[in-house]
Structure formats: C-alpha cells, structure tokens
Amino acid sequence: MKPSDIGKAYNQITDLWEGEDFNKNNGIEEHKRAIAFIHNKGKALDVGCGCTGRIIDLMIEAGFSPEGVDISDAMITLAREKHPQIIFHQQDICQWKMNEKYDLISAWDSIWHLPLNQQSIVLTKLVNALNMGGVLIFSFGGADQEGEHTNNSMGPEIYYSSLGVNGFLKILLELGCSIRHLEYDQYPELHAYLIVQKDSND
Predict the structure, then answer these.
(1) What confidence tens digit (pLDDT) does each residue in 142-172 have?
(2) What is the CATH classification number for the domain harbouring 30?
(3) What total of structural domains would you count in the chain?
(4) What share of the chain is helix, strand, coil (3-state, %, to 5)?
(5) pTM of the shown model
C-alpha cells in the first residue's frame, strides 16, 4: 500500500480516536521519558499526529513549540479544530521536505505504516532534522527480522512494516545516535518503542 492509501484508510476511522473508549494516555508516559533527556526545548514535531492532540498538548506543557504532520486530511482537519494556533502539515512524510530543525520528534504508532523500502530513508530524514542533542521517539513492530503485513482489525485494510529491532538499532547507530531506551511496552505484543538522542559531538 502507498502512503496515500493509508491516509484514505485513516480518513474512514477518525471515530476510533474521537470516541470515549480511546485511551488518551497512550504513549504519554513514554514521551515524558523521552523529554527527560532533552536540555533545549525549542521546536518539536509530531509525525503522524492524528486528531487527538494529546502529544501536541504534552509538547506544549513541556515548553516546546510543536508542529504536526499527517497524511490523512480528515485527521489534520480535526487536529486544526482542536489547536488552531498550531501549524499542521497535511503531507506524506516520505516526500515532505523538512526545512526546520527540531529538539524533539515523535513518531508514535505512525511510521510503521511506511513502505518497508522507505523505513531507513525516513528514519535518516528524521534524525537529520534533529538539532544536536535532540531526541527522536518512535514506536515500531518489535519483530526479530524485517517484514511487512496488512490487517483489517480497525476496519479498512492497513499496511504495516518493520525493519526489526536489530535493523532499527543498526541504522540509528550509523546515524550517530545514542540509544537511550528500548522497551516492549505492551508485552507479549510486539509493540516496541525507541528513544534515541542525536550525539552532540556528531
């Protein structure tokens, strides 16, 4: 599936995030752990920001000036309604030219929808968009090997891919990042996340 297909799929299921059953604490403690590593709280970016605004709110509370990006126009419309003062970009992260530098980039439950052959390219783009000492936090499928699959558990068919734990670690170390935290936070599910920091002496 192309990223544009993922955007169309998410356009159909915004209600899953707008409903009372959605856990708005999802990912919040993990982001607080990431923020603790950051000394300079300038600009921040929420990649695959969705519509809830919960990570944007946390970034604001922590002293950052956040922006959001998402490929789903329906998600971006709802995000702008909640935070009219925030800049939101309706873009495909694979194609989007990032002109800013950030102290914090979050990609929570989002870049796992990228085509497998775009994973390393986009990770490189995100790390390059960090200031020295900046932090990237992202969740991924914590498999042993790289792979891809689709499922329709949320309704429409949606694509997922992962480089596997060692694949992500290899690329991030090559990019000059220090690994600050790796956790399977929903074990035994293979939902994992990484916190990495761009080395100040890179």
Answers:
(1) 999 999 999 998 899 999 999 999 999 999 9
(2) 3.40.50.150
(3) 1
(4) 30, 30, 40
(5) 0.96
